[in-house]
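Reminder: ligand-aware prediction takes two inputs, not one.
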Amino acid sequence: MPRFIFTLAVLGFFSLATPLSFAQKTLTNLHVLPKDISEDELSASMLENLRGLGLRRRQNEGCLHCHVGDMEQPSDSWDWASDAKPAKGKARTMMAMVRDINAQHLEKLEPRLDPPMRVTCYTCHAGRIDPRPLPDVLAAAYGDGGIESAMARYRELHERYFGGDAYDFRVGVLAGVAFEMAGRGAFDDAVALAELNTEVHPTEPAARRIWLQLRLGRTHAESGNTAALSEFDGWLRGPESEAIDPALLDGVGWGLFRRDRQDDALAVFRRNHQQFPEEYIPNESLADALWNHGERDQAIEMFEAWLARHPDHAMARRRLATLKRQL
Ligand code: HEC
Ligand code: HEC
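Here is what comes back for the chain with heme C:
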């Protein structure tokens, strides 16, 4: 009987003091890989699984995510053929899927990238077992244990994966989750998450602005528009003023607009326009809000006044033309 000795000595993405090895009498349980696969090919395939899912290679520890064995025992005594772990069954389905994507689907592209790209576990998993994107992972944690659990999960993932491909930690992603919470009325949770965003991104003005935006949204929900606008006025005189830009009230205004609070939205757009009369966005948003409110002449006048001051402004010109067509 042949005795396979797999020496996983091909050092891939990081090197190890001792090469990993395991031995097995024969391969008995292959359903996707060819039964006559060589040692090197089997090793390469298993290392691809490890790397794709971000599992530890040292002493074959990561292999145990799918295979049955005991870290106290040498790995050549592990039961490599066993299908006892559900992860192995899923991985087998994944291996067949990846084989088909490469052999059947990508083959049909004409022309291919040069050199052609092959899909691997890493293409989707990017170094994590659960391939869901960050917002989905946070939503799941939030559903299970509320905001504390979502925040703990974020910190944990950030600590472990920041700088890698696995998760998108940019400002907008956590902000998107926070806005979604606010959209469902969970303002305290949304504000807490947006505050975490400022903590993780201390030098990003957008993170601070989004946090302030959600705080205004909360004040609006709890105490109404006048209270929200006077909170904004207070910030203009305090340390928050640094983060106040035309996008802040603009976002609050469109949030109200989407929730069908047209009058409040209009008041917020007016306030923003008063604050930043020479910035385009507050002009466009106020004009659009006026238009939606039925004040079509005023909307047209605003665009015309803007264009009188900025005759080459292509965006304003296009917007005005669209509105005039709808008159
Ligand atoms: C993500 C899951 C996963 C990981 C991690 C993994 N394997 Fe596997 N392994 C499989 C699957 C699935 C098969 C069966 C493939 C098939 O059916 O063709 C397999 C088959 C094997 C076999 C053949 C067993 C037999 O007799 O049929 C060996 C040996 C093996 N793996 C070694 C390793 C080693 C060594 C590691 C760690 C470096 C490793 N595997 C990591 C999923 C995994
Ligand atoms: C085309 C994208 C894609 C590729 C490529 C891919 N996977 Fe997956 N994988 C997924 C998705 C999506 C899921 C989750 C499916 C679900 O449960 O809804 C998943 C789930 C899994 C799971 C189960 C995770 C869990 O905790 O339930 C394992 C294990 C796994 N993949 C292993 C692999 C391995 C090994 C490879 C490479 C051979 C691979 N995957 C390649 C998309 C991919």
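The CA atoms of residues 307 and 313 lie 7 Å apart. Residues 134-326 form a domain with the Serine Threonine Protein Phosphatase 5, Tetratricopeptide repeat fold (CATH 1.25.40.10). We will return to this case in the review session.
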